[in-house]
Amino acid sequence: MKRLQKIGGIAAISEAAIYIFGFITFGAIINQPATGAAPSEVINHLTQNNLLLTVSNLVLYVLFGVLLAPLVLSIYSRTKTEYTTSRLAAVFGFTWVTIIIASGMISNIGLSTVITTGALNPEQGVALWKMVNIIVEGLGGGNEIVGALWVILLSIAGLKSRTLPKSLVYYGILVGTFGMLTIFPTDIFAALFGLTQIVWFAWIGIILVKTKD
Description:
The chain is an all-alpha fold and 213 residues long. The chain has one domain (2-209). The protein has 8 helices and no strands. Helix 2 (39-48) packs across helix 4 and helix 4 (83-120) packs antiparallel against helix 5 (122-141). It is elongated.
């Protein structure tokens, strides 16, 4: 029990670090093509940043999903006395794991195909890239419903089982609410969900690492 909690805690803190990595990478390092850029410019951008984009997808999606699995399991183990809610939370948690890893693999395979296609036909390459983005965004890149439900449900389970601090529980419900609001077509809620989750992951990670029994 103690070892699982510590593993989950380290995973949670790592998730927070991955979020920060993502904000820095796409906010300060990778400059996106201007709106209305020519197809050849978009393909050239993807080609020049191929390695960085590929590594970023592996970290932000695949590694994130892999680390999320032991975190979901450790929180379930901690809150399982609240049987129904904790089990339901775990279902959404492991579903999120699957969706995130799938998003990363689709994004990287799609990127490779787009670059190859775009070298011959930039217009077709850009059209394909838009399709890849729609799939990735639909799975979870821009719609955070599954992850939000996991956070909300585990917060409720933590409150009922008295295994998580009330302050973290209420903060988790706020974070989950931002995630639920990503159903609306605006970037603000996705940004709020990501930013508040940095604190949430770090907070719950510290709690899990400090578990004594």
